[in-house]
Amino acid sequence: MADESCSTEIQQRRVELVGNYSKHLTHLLDLLFNVGAVTEEDLSLVRGSAVRGERECMRVLLDVLNGRGEEACRAFLYVLPSVQDKTAKLGQANRQEHLKKHKDILARQHGLVDYLSIRRHCLGHDETGCWTDITFSRQAGYASPSQCRHESAGVGDEICIFKDVYENLLCSPASGVNMLSGDAGSGKTTFVRRLVREWAAETNSSKTVLSLSFRELNLITQEQSLQDLLSDHYIHLKPFLPELLNSNPAQFLLILDGLDEFCYPLNFEHTPKCSDPERVQPIQSIVVNLIKGNLLPGVSIFLTSRPHAVTKVPPVLVSQFYSLLGFSVAQQKQYFEQNCSSPEAAEAVLASVSSHKPLLLMCHIPAFCWIVSTALHDGGSCLFPDTAGANSGEKGSLGAMAFKGLLERRFIFESSDLNSFNLDSANLSQVFLSEILKEDRASLTFEKGFHFIHTSMQEFLAALYYVLQSLSGSDPFSGLKPSTGCSIQNALKQMASAVNKFNTPQRLFRRRIKKALRCGERHQSGHMDLFARYLL
Ligand SMILES: Nc1ncnc2c1ncn2[C@@H]1O[C@H](COP(=O)(O)OP(=O)(O)OP(=O)(O)O)[C@@H](O)[C@H]1O
């Protein structure tokens, strides 16, 4: 009776055995041959079905075993656990190896060299010295749009630092949807970079980070599945992704940086519900289903956004809401000390900033500290002292392209855009602040593009272009033609007299500034926030 049960068991488990063991057929055949359960003839018979796929081979093997009787079936059931053990161990080791590789790749993608360009000198030292402390406020969810607009902590908000946010996102089991709101240039992407790098350096992390930016997601024009999206982005995880995503989504932290830049509308009410990672759908539906917890239920999500776009996500879906509060005066001091070439230079920069109240106020935004310390890197008192000179035409064209980009809400430029403004990408790195543009190898498409080293720089150059055009009597809006370089060159030559005019604004100039501000307001997207501040 006991003997009969082996062949019966195999028949009853036929579907499961074909599903789970077809992949390990070679190993199984070796074991069965070694214990004498199958003959060479049997092996040929099984392997002869290879053209119809490994599952068919497995079916043939089960038939062969059945034909050979109870002894062979018992041997099969006996060797089965060792196949399972070995493959589980191999799979585990392989997976660990790939996750380690994943950490290395993510750390490289979130590297510092291009991003915090002026602090290369600190890279050889302890990395924590590269980041300046910044303060956050934390509240459970957010209730109203006005709540996400202000930059100071409200009553009942908890004040926290990097470590607190890190622990909530990466050390607590499942933290739902977390949102970080901050003004343009306030340090959201820098926070993401630091988070990823510190996670990658940790040996015992329980969660795995996946990081995407909305700027990259904008490039996806075809419908696709979440699984394909992630597999394309993280090719090294491809063999494990289906299993990882299905088995335990709670082990992932998914970072989505820059919601304000996402160009597709998010419709939380009418997007069809989808919980299948393999289902093909538009990119905005993937985002909605992730945030609603339909796709990868239990995954922790970290969204960053400029304040105006926070309301794209309904408050009820947000479990923790963080705001970046900017640099305090003490933190600004720390920043300049970390980023200037010497303590004397840092002191001179700080003195320069402190003597201009508007500048001091603006420097609570890290991007301003970055621009100011780059411009005054030697501690001098003149902003961008070497902007006048032989390449002013190119700088002006760059400003025109930056302004056109803002009007069209574009942050990535193609070679043809550069050509139409007579800009040569090869020269640009030498022209302005050494790294004004960098190549964008958007990893989802591998297409070549360019973007300003930071959007705050794009907005700064656009504002500079706008002011100089207006002061020279030209209309900045009509100056966005390919030949713009020449007219800007003239404008830059007149910089000195223009600055005087700036002190005694003329009616036309005032009208132009008002027009620009109205234009900024009309673009409710907030991508001209800094542009407007620079103008003022
Ligand atoms: N904590 C920090 N320590 C040192 N530098 C920082 C820090 N935060 C921001 N910066 C500097 O400010 C610049 C702008 O920061 P970041 O790109 O993170 O802003 P953002 O909030 O993502 O801006 P945007 O909304 O325009 O995308 C960085 O390039 C970096 O030089």
What are the defining features of this structure?
Rossmann fold; nucleotide-binding; 7-stranded mixed β-sheet; 50% helix; 9% strand; Death Domain, Fas; two-stranded antiparallel sheet; lipoprotein; 9 strands; 24 helices; binds adenosine-5'-triphosphate; immunity; 536 residues; alpha/beta
Indicate the topology:
Elements: H1 2-12, H2 14-21, H3 25-34, H4 40-47, H5 54-68, H6 70-109, E1 136-140, E2 158-160, H7 162-170, E3 177-181, H8 188-201, E4 208-213, H9 214-217, H10 226-233, H11 241-247, E5 252-257, H12 283-291, E6 300-305, E7 320-324, H13 329-339, H14 343-354, H15 357-362, H16 366-375, H17 392-407, H18 415-420, H19 425-431, E8 437-441, E9 448-452, H20 455-471, H21 484-493, H22 495-503, H23 507-522, H24 529-535
Parallel strand pairs: 3-6, 3-7, 4-5, 5-6
Antiparallel strand pairs: 1-2, 1-7, 8-9
Helix pairs in contact: 1-6, 2-5, 3-6, 4-5, 6-8, 13-14, 13-16, 17-20, 17-21, 20-21, 20-23, 20-24, 23-24
Adenosine-5'-triphosphate binds at residues 115-116, 131-132, 134, 182, 184-190, 258, 306, 366-367, 370, 454-456.
